[in-house]
C-alpha cells in the first residue's frame, strides 16, 4: 500500500499513530526512487493528497530540488541518540547492560550497516554466529532485544518508517535455587552475627540485594510492622526499585524482632559498616558465601534468599497474586515459575469437577440430569 496507518506504543504504554506515504517511482533512466515519509496532515485523506503531490513532484523532477534528504545513519551512527534515549528512560544497570551488549556483540556485526539495510537474513546470521561462538541463548536474546529496541527508537524519532521484526531464540525457562526450611535455619545459624539480621530480613521479605543495601530507617515502621521498598542501589547509583515502583511488605514477627534488636545510631542505612556507610556488593557476597560454607551448603547468593522467600510462601499455600505483589514482579508470568511448588494446586484444580457442574453430575459411570 502507498498510504498506511502506522501504530506503536510509547514507553508509557500509550498508543500513538501516524499516516505514512510509501511511493516507488521509476525515472526515465530506469532508476527506481523510493520515498517513505510521514504525512504532514495526519489523516487518511491528507496522506492520500500528500502521496499525489509527491508523485507529481517526482514526475516533474522537482522533488527535493534544492534540498538535501538526510542520509540514513548506520547502526553505529545512531548509537549516540539511542544511548541518550536509554539514559533518559532506563535505570543505570539497564543502561550499562545495553552498552556492554552493543560493544561486545551488536556493533561488531551491525555497526557499519545502514539502519534500513539490516534485514532478517542478517539477524539469522548473527544468531548462528553467536551460537557457534558458544554464547548462551539467553545472552543472544538479550542482545537481540537491545537491537529491537534500537529500531523502535529509530521509528519513534522518524529516522525509520517501520521497525524490523526481530525474532528471538526459543529458550528453556531457567531453573532457580531455593533453600528448604531446614536449610534456611542452618544458613541463619551459620551467618556471622553482624550479618544475621540482613539474612533474616532477606529470607522473610524477599528484598533484592540492592534493595536490602539501600534500605533506610525512614522506610521502616517498626510499630505498625511495615517496610516500604522505595530505593535500590547498583554500583553506587541509587534509584527506585526494579520496575520503577515502590511496594510495601508487611513484617512478620521474625523480621520485626530482628530489626528492633538491630536498631543502631550509625546513620540512615539499616545495614551498614561501622562508619554508617552502605555495604558494598563484594562484602555482601562474601558474607553469604562464608555462611553457606559453614552451614555445609552449596554456595548461594542473595537472590537465593529471595527465591526461598517466594518458594516457602507458595509451599504454605499463599496465593500467587499475593506473592507477585510482595516480590514486586511487574507481571504474574514471573511469579508463575513458583506455581509447581504449591502442594494443593493440582488437587484443588480437579476438585472443581466434583459435585454439580452446570446442572450435570458425572463421575459414577453414568450421566444423570
UniProtKB/TrEMBL annotation:
CDD domains: INT_Rci_Hp1_C. The keyword DNA-binding applies. It comes from the Bacteria. This is Site-specific integrase. Keywords: DNA integration, DNA recombination, DNA-binding. InterPro entries: CB, DNA_brk_join_enz, Integrase-like_cat_sf, Integrase_catalytic, Integrase_recombinase_N, Integrase_SAM-like_N, Tyrosine_recombinase_XerCD. Residues 174-351 form the Tyr recombinase domain. Belongs to the 'phage' integrase family. The keyword Nucleotide-binding does not apply. It comes from Hyalangium rubrum. Pfam families: Phage_int_SAM_3, Phage_integrase. Residues 73-155 form the Core-binding (CB) domain. PROSITE patterns: CB (PS51900), TYR_RECOMBINASE (PS51898). SUPFAM superfamilies: DNA breaking-rejoining enzymes (SSF56349).
Amino acid at each position: 500500500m502507498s498510504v498506511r496507518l502506522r501504530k506503536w506504543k510509547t514507553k508509557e504504554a500509550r498508543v500513538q499513530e501516524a499516516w505514512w506515504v510509501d511511493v516507488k517511482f521509476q525515472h526515465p533512466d530506469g532508476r527506481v526512487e523510493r520515498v517513505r515519509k510521514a504525512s504532514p496532515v495526519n489523516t487518511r485523506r491528507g496522506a492520500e493528497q500528500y502521496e499525489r503531490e509527491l508523485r507529481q513532484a517526482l514526475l516533474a523532477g522537482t522533488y527535493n530540488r534544492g534540498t538535501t534528504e538526510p542520509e540514513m545513519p548506520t547502526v553505529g551512527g545512531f548509537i549516540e541518540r539511542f544511548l541518550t534515549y536509554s539514559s533518559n528512560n532506563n535505570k543505570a544497570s539497564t543502561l550499562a547492560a545495553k552498552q556492554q551488549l552493543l560493544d561486545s556483540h551488536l556493533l561488531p556485526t551491525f555497526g557499519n550497516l545502514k539502519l534500513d539495510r539490516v534485514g532478517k537474513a542478517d539477524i539469522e546470521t548473527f544468531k548462528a554466529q553467536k551460537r557457534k561462538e558458544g554464547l548462551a541463548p539467553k545472552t543472544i536474546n538479550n542482545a537481540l532485544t537491545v537491537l529491537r529496541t534500537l529500531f523502535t527508537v529509530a521509528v519513534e524519532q522518524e529516522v525509520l518508517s517501520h521497525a524490523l521484526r526481530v525474532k528471538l531464540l526459543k529458550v528453556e525457562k531457567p531453573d532457580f535455587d531455593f533453600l528448604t526450611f531446614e536449610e534456611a535455619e542452618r544458613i541463619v545459624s551459620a551467618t556471622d552475627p553482624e550479618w544475621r539480621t540482613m539474612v533474616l530480613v532477606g529470607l522473610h521479605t524477599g528484598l533484592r540485594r540492592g534493595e536490602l543495601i539501600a534500605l533506610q530507617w525512614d522506610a521502616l515502621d517498626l510499630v505498625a510492622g511495615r517496610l516500604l521498598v522505595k530505593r535500590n542501589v547498583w554500583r553506587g547509583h541509587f534509584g527506585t526499585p526494579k520496575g520503577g515502583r515502590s511496594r510495601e511488605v508487611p513484617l512478620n514477627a521474625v523480621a520485626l524482632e530482628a530489626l528492633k534488636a538491630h536498631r543502631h545510631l550509625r546513620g540512615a542505612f539499616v545495614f551498614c559498616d561501622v562508619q554508617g556507610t552502605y555495604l558494598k556488593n563484594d562484602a555482601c557476597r562474601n558474607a553469604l558465601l562464608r555462611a553457606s560454607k559453614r552451614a555445609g551448603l552449596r554456595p548461594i547468593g542473595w537472590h537465593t534468599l529471595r527465591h526461598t522467600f517466594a518458594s516457602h510462601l507458595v509451599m504454605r499455600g499463599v496465593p500467587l497474586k499475593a506473592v507477585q505483589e510482595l516480590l514486586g514482579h511487574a507481571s504474574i508470568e514471573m511469579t508463575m515459575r513458583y506455581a509447581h511448588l504449591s502442594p494443593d494446586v493440582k488437587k484443588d484444580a480437579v476438585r472443581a469437577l466434583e459435585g454439580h457442574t452446570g446442572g450435570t453430575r458425572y463421575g459414577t459411570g453414568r450421566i444423570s440430569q
